[in-house]
Amino acid sequence: xxxxxxxxxxxxxxxTIIEAKGGVKNASFKILGDSxxxxxxIHAPYGGVYxxxxxxxxxxxxxxxxxxxxxxAGLDKKKKPFDLIAxxxxxxxxxxxxxxxxxxxxxxxxxxxxxxxxxxxxxxxxHMEGHILSVFGKxxxxxxxxxxxxxFKIPKVDFPILSLLVSGGHTELVLAKDWMKYEVIxxxxxxxxxxxxxxxxxMLGLPYPGGPEIxxxxxxxxTLSLRxxxxxxxxxxxxxxxxxxxxxxTKNFSFTxxxxxxxxxxxxxxxxxxxxxxxxxxxxKHPDVLTNDGIKKVIALEFENAVVxxxxxxxxxxxxxxxxxxxxxxxGVASNKHLRKxxxxxxxxxxxxxxxxxxxxxxxxxxxxxxxxxxxxxxKGKVPNPSKIKAVGNLKLK
Length: 398
Ligand code: KG4
Ligand code: ZN
Description:
By secondary structure, the chain is an alpha/beta fold. Helix content is 40%, strand content 18%. The chain is built from twelve helices and eleven strands. The protein has helices spanning 40-43, 51-73, 94-110, 127-133, 193-203, 210-223, 226-234, 242-247, 272-285, 293-322, 337-346, 366-378, and strands at residues 2-7, 12-21, 28-38, 84-90, 122-126, 151-153, 161-166, 171-178, 181-187, 326-330, 352-354. Strands 5-4-1-2-3-6 form a six-stranded mixed β-sheet, with helices on both faces. A five-stranded mixed β-sheet has the order 9-8-7-10-11, with helices on both faces. A hairpin with a 4-residue loop joins strand 1 and strand 2. The radius of gyration is 22 Å and the shape is globular. The site of zinc ion has 5 residues, from helix 4.
């Protein structure tokens, strides 16, 4: 069946057309067309996503992307031959989510699935389930008339699965003992990991989104010679402990920024205190950070280490407790190189580790199409009344 999927939960507008078959147990997909419009440049001056602007941009982008995706897929613009529309209905920014839902509702009335009467069904999709299943996707569209390159199957995976979901809006540990049955066992009590990256980046004078920028600086900090690291750190005296740096021949810092909730007896996270610690560090010791590249690298490195160490530590505890067989790491922050390296270093002997392709780490409609199909098959074609679908900003996985 042909599925059109729509993603508008935050600052990316995505539309994908996927051909899917095989049912839940043997699902396989072929991406016929895929388009994504990023609003990063529009939100950059605000240092974060500005909901009213996101809504305006989604409304503008959706019809353009639909036309473009239909063309890429070689499908008739007038007939719109879809068997299912999958749309993100949460979690995310409600004004942004609504744009996708309303677009789906209108489109469903205009679709003409071959040999079918009536309206095309709409499957509402949880964005976080999209991030989990994004690890099975491939984002290359099949070039028309050539051997399909965009085909992929859902492979056999061993349970239980643990998903570490790290994005701009969420930081969650999700347990799945069975296919598409989820239990959130830990989450952030305040800021999400990506949000902390974005806020700290702003303090360091780096553009939005801050994750990739901090990561770049931290990488540079990591490869500095021990000598220059110590001298850069010496300037941060009182904040970083030099004796620990000297003792640490691996060039990694001994940490002095906090690792919040690291030893709390649960799987929750907190990144707001860490962000505030950076704020005080800059205010009290390094008001010159914007013009001092050495200090910028040292702070970026220490901050990234603090986030990654916390994420890995909690993941490890959950893996041990639930005897996890498969670990999924997904969401925007999953493209962080240091996180990937530390995850691979810490796990993998007793469990399989799955990351999404880099382009499917951040928000996209491919993952929404995958979930839409699997949910449709799991529910034996039962979908909600399309006019009853509503945006749920704080939607939970279950
Ligand atoms: O999943 P996503 O595209 O959107 C949300 O659903 O939030 O995630 C975006 C977040 C942003 O906060 C961005 O700074 C962060 O992912 N991010 C990164 C990296 N690339 C993106 N964080 C750390 N390191 C990266 N390389
Ligand atoms: Zn996301």
